[in-house]
Amino acid sequence: MAGTSVAVVSYVINNGPRPVAEATRQRVLDAIRLSGYRPNGVARALAMGSTKTYGLIVPNIGNPFVASMAHVLLQESLNHGHVMLLGDAGDDRRRELELIHGLLNRQVDGLFYNSVDRHPYIDVIQASNTPFVMLDRVEPQPGVSMLRVDERQAAFQVTAHLLEHGYRQVGIISGPLEMLNAQDRIQGWRDALTAHKVPVDEALIFPASYSRQGGYEAAQRMLAGAGAPRALFASNEGQALGAIRAFAEQGIRVPQDVALVCFNGTDQSAFHVPTLTTVRQPLQDMARCAIAMLQNWDGEAKLHEFPHYLEIGESCGCLPQAKQNATTI
Question: Which of 10, 23, 35, 132 is the most buried (most CB within 10 A)?
Answer without folding.
Answer: 132
